[in-house]
Amino acid sequence: MLLRKSSIIVAILIVFIFAGLIYRDAKVEQVKHDLLEHSIVVAEPMWNFDTEQLDKYLETVAKKNNYQSLKLIDDGDLIIFESSIAFPHKIERAFAFLGLIPKTHFTKEILYNDQKIGRIEIDWRDTSIYFYSYSFLVFILLIAIINLYSSVFAAKNSLELKVLETENALEILQNQKDYIEGIFNVVPEGLITIDHNERISGNNHFFDTIVDNWARTLKQESALIQHEILAGLLQRLKEKEQDQYTINIGGQTIHIDYSSAVVSSLEEINWVVSLRDTTKINAMKRELAQTQKLESVGRLASGIAHEINTPTQYVLSNIDFLTESYQDIAKVMRQVGALLDDEKKESIDIPQLDELNKSYQEADWDYLQQEIPNALQQSSEGLRRTAKIISAMKHFSHPSGSTPVLNDLNSAIQSTVAVTTNEWKYVAEIELQLEHDLPLVTCFLDELNQVFLAMIVNSAHAIEEKYGKDGDAKGKIIIKTESNEDSVSVMISDDGNGIPQNIKDKVFDPFFTTKELNKGTGQGLAIAYDTIVNQHNGTIAVMSEEKEGTSFIISLPCKEST
User: Fold this and answer.
1) Angle between helices 279-345 and 350-363 (to 10 degrees)
2) Domain 187-277 - what CATH class?
3) How far apart are the two ends of the chain, measured CA to CA in Å?
4) What is the pTM of this model?
5) HSE on the CB side for 495, CA within 13 Å?
6) 219: left (phi over 0), alpha (psi -120 to 50) or beta
7) Distance CA 488, CA 539 (A)
8) Does residue 139 have a pLDDT over 70?
9) Share of the chain above pLDDT 90, in %
């Protein structure tokens, strides 16, 4: 190690000497250049015999450039100016006495208008290289001390730097922690972190608010509410199911929507979960759907009344006919009874037979025996039709519970078609292509009824726009159901005007409608989308071509929802 350091010192010394020699050559060239400049400057004052200016300038030059001697000689070898400066330092004088400092003599002719008028002579001794070497020797002597100091200083700086870096890192981490906690607490949803022991390791203020609100509502301990929420959540997380779940506490069903993320980079946290209490929102949605359904029922009420009134009218007419016919038949039967009594007495007379014959002819039995069965059949059909409409209306308006149950979509579609008869029968024919043995679907039936109603009414209105209401031509609505491996699909198609391409992407937007005032609110398809996609995890798509027609395709999972 010592040899290595010595080698480095020798190498530096050699480099330093060569650098000094190069530096001296550069200084010599600089002296020559300065001498040329001096000869030019003194030419004019020397020509004009301005000794005062010459003395002032040359004295300044001699001191500034550290010349050992400076002479200004005219063309006749007469010395006009002479200056000599001794070495200011003892060591320099000693070196000079020993001849260790080389002396260099420089001469430069002075020309004025290209005529030689004299010369300038200087003696220059370069002492800088020796001072430079002296400094380097001092540097060598100080290397050991500097080495030791630098090692200690480097260690101190390294330690201070590490301390500073640690403090900065801690400050950054604290700032990030404060920033994350700030976000954590202002998010308007419950946020929790769950550790590997399936315990809540942290939560924000909004989660506390959710728990406390339900604790007050149900008059239960907050710890119980938190435990139930966590238990239901962990079950869904382990099943890798997302979106929502329900818990039941004290007979009250709580609906919770959530999203989660697995955190693999932290030892203390396994999941980060965002929770939202949607109990009130779901209740409001159900109320809105029920209100929309009642609104639809109210809008269809006059048509339903008309549908019930028509069979009721001809049932009443048939009853009047049967009442009148009964009186005629009763008259004949009374006379037949009287004849039978007289026959027993063997006293039948001709006037009685004439009276019976007259009553028989007035009753027109041939007509009655043909029309009475028809009247009974018509009345029976009318009553069945009325019963069907009432049954369909009852089925359509029956509210669902708070949880989805298995239902028959074919039956729901048939009921909705019956309820909406007055909306479509004057403009279209409906063709039902319902798959036999269609799997039951877990759903909120009243909300799906509302979806089917909106689709059928929209199809009827589209067909009416194309064909008119009073024309001979009618459109066609086809409702088709089919099943595949894990879902059931419902397609409702019509041959109406179709949907323009520029608004096709807006049909599911709330309050968007192309219908005239008081004929549409723009809520039907928006509610249909929310019902199918958000509440039943299904899909709804639309295919349409202008002037050709529109098809809505609804797909619902047929596995039981949890």
Assistant:
1) 160
2) alpha beta
3) 78
4) 0.45
5) 13
6) left
7) 11
8) no
9) 8
Minimal CA–CA distance to 118: which of 71, 57, 72, 50? 72
Contact 191, 273 (CB under 8 A): yes
Q: For residue range 487-524, list pLDDT tens digits in order.
A: 999 999 999 888 888 777 777 776 656 665 455 555 66
**Contacts of residue 465, Cβ cutoff 8 Å, sequence gap at least 6:** 496, 497
Q: At 50, list the tokens.
A: 């301005």
User: What pLDDT was estimated at residue 394?
Assistant: 60
Structure confidence at residue 23 (pLDDT)? 72
CATH number of 400-562: 3.30.565.10
187-277 shares the fold of 2-126: yes
- Angle ∠(106,108,111) on CA atoms, nearest 5: 170
Rounded Cα distance between 316 and 328, Å, is 19
- Which of 549, 529, 555 shows the shortest CA–CA distance to 459? 549
CA 328 to chain CA centroid, Å, is 82
Query: What ranges do the domains of the chain cover?
Result: 2-126, 187-277, 279-386, 400-562
C-alpha to C-alpha distance for 81 and 162, rounded to whole angstroms: 67
Q: What is the DSSP letter of 112?
A: E
DSSP code, position 502: G
Cα–Cα dist 228/248, whole Å: 8
Residue 352 phi/psi, 5-degree rounding, is -65, -40
User: For domain 2-126, is the CATH number 3.30.450?
Assistant: yes
Contact 86, 70 (CB under 8 A): no
Instruction: Report the chain's C-alpha Rg in angstroms.
Output: 58
Report the pLDDT value the prediction gives residue 476, as an integer from 0 to 100.
Answer: 92
Question: Which one is predicted more confidently, 29 or 304?
Answer: 29
Query: For residue 299, is pLDDT > 50?
Result: yes
Q: Which residues pair with 552 in a beta bridge?
A: 492, 542
User: Is there a contact between 119 and 109 (Cβ–Cβ < 8 Å)?
Assistant: yes
Cβ proximity of 210 and 275 under 8 Å: yes
Strands 441-443 and 539-545: unpaired
- Cα–Cα distance for residue pair 559/467, rounded to 1 Å: 41
